[in-house]
Each structure stands twice: as C-alpha cells, then as structure tokens.
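Limitations

Structures in this collection are predictions, not experimental determinations, and the ligand pose is part of the prediction. Treat each record accordingly. The example that follows, with adenine as the small molecule, is included so readers can see exactly what is and is not provided: the inputs are given verbatim, and the output is the predicted complex.
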Amino acid sequence: MDNFIAGLPKLELHLHIEGTLEPELMFAMASRNGVALPWPDVESLRAAYEFDCLQSFLDLYYRGASVLITEQDFFDLTWAYLERCAAEQVVHVEIFFDPQAHSVRGIPLATVLGGIERALQAGALAFGISWRLIMSFLRHLSEEAAFLTLREAEPFLERIHGIGLDSGELGNPPTKFAGVFAQARALGLPVVAHAGEEGPVSYIWQAINELQVRRIDHGVRCVDDPELLRYLSDTRLPLTVCPLSNTRLKVFAQMADHNVLQLLEQGLCVTINSDDPAYFGGYMAANFQALVAELGASREQLCRLSLNGVEASWLDLADKARLTREILCYAACHGVTLN
Ligand code: ADE
Ligand code: ZN
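Predicted complex:
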C-alpha cells in the first residue's frame, strides 16, 4: 500500500509554507540570521511539538517563522517543500503564505513573495509541479490590518491567485472579515477560509454566505449540521481536510475517530492535505498512509480523494482533464475500479 500511495498523483490544496519549516532548517536560518530561539537544539525543539489545541501550536509556529528574514530564506523554505513533493508524486500545490507574520517583523511583501515564487518557478521547471499562491489574513488581527495588507499587496496581485483566512479561529468568526473579503472578490480574487476546524458550524455557514468562499479549509465540524452536510454534498463545495493536523491539534482525539471517509462516502468533495507538515508528523504520503492504517481506507477511496483534489483545485480545465486521466490511468493500471 505504501508503494501505491507513493506513486498515486496527489494534489495539495491546504499547506502553509511557514508550516514546512523543519527544525534543522529553522536552526540553520536562526544561526545565519543571528536570530535567538528559545530552544537549545533541534531535539528540544522537536520535543516541544506536543500541542493540546490550535493556539498552542500557533504560538510555536509564529516563533519558528521569526527566523525567515531574506528572500533566500523564503526560497530555501519553499524549495525544500517542493523537493518533498517531487519525491512523493505531489503534482500540483496551492499554498498559503502569511504576510502579516513577516510584515510585523519589518520583512517586505516583495521579499516574501519573491523567494516563494522563485522556488515555485524552479519547481515547475525541475519537477513539473504546478502551483497557485494564496495570501492569508491572520484572523486574530483586526479587519483593518487585513485591509492594509490587501492594499500593500495591490502591486503584486497578478502574482497572487487567491485570499485565505487562518490563525486562531475561536472568537474570530468569518463575519469579522466580510468587508475585506468583499474587496478581495471585487479585485477578482477567489477566496477561501479556515472554518470548522475548532470553531462551530455557524462559522462554516458564515464563510459560505458572507465570505462567498470557493473552498472551506478543514470544515470537519460540518457533521454537526445535517442541513450543511446536504448543502456540501449537493454543491460539492470542497473541504480541504488535514488528518494528521487534526489529530495533533486534538480536533479528533485519535485518527480512528476522524470523519473524513464518512464525509467522502456521503458525497462531499473532501481532499487530503498536510497543513503544517513539519509540525504535524508528515507530508502528503504520511496523511494518506494514516487513513489506510487507522481508518482502513481502500485504494479506491484514495484514488477518489485524489480526484477530488483535481476537482477542488484552481487549475484550468485542460490541466484538470490531464490530471484526471493520469489518476484514472494509475487506478486502472493497479486494478482499482472507480465508479
Ligand atoms: N496557520 C497555520 N496552520 C493553521 C491551522 N491549522 N489553522 C489555522 N491557522 C493556521
Ligand atoms: Zn491550515
């Protein structure tokens, strides 16, 4: 099964690039940039990866991101992630970046975007990995701060493919950002939002009705509302689900409790993603493997999850058709029948 997962073409649609910062690279950047970290070494940093909720993770995540200073740092970070993608047959990525986590430290958007984009362009040439870039607003900050970030991004909007909403969910409902999301949509940007990770079903409805999202990031709390489940299966509005993240952040006590296969079987367009893989114990293949090991996912279900990734992506129709054929071909070659 591990070989089957390794070769299956996969698409990643929910990935925070700052969440791919492996401890070794974090320490290397801290050293070359003269940034002090509160851990003496890589081992004690890894030992701190015991989270009891989203906020306990975010505190560490922002501290880790503080080592990212130069354009080369953002390049190295993104390149390391793309090398992993290439090794795991991840063929398309739609990645988030958090400009406000860097602008508070005086790092210009041009530096952040320049490094990430240069790596993505190199990754397309070296590995054939296609990409989209999603600029996320930090929801624990004000809507005014998000407006300011959007204004600062205006010279770069040709290079940004969409807008997201992340960081601490509880107490920061989507409604808080209705104005700035309306402006982003008016600028022609598609929008997504984290909702229903720790927050209630009402946040998912708000993201749909007030932010007019194209996808929900996480959304696993949708099981609490039968009407929402019906809506999601009727419309096929995608949920980008992150199984290892959800267990590490105690959204589910254990992987055996995860609802992603149940949602898949109810006809929802759920996809599998790694969220912050350096912090949560694995990249795309590890997430697929966990579904097999803990939930008994079949090869057919894994293929359908990958096909959902194609459907939920922002690729154009020709690329969607090509990747759909690739996955169907892979399934057929391995004797997997898809209805
Ligand atoms: N930022 C990085 N990872 C996140 C997550 N899982 N939820 C919300 N904000 C995040
Ligand atoms: Zn996320």
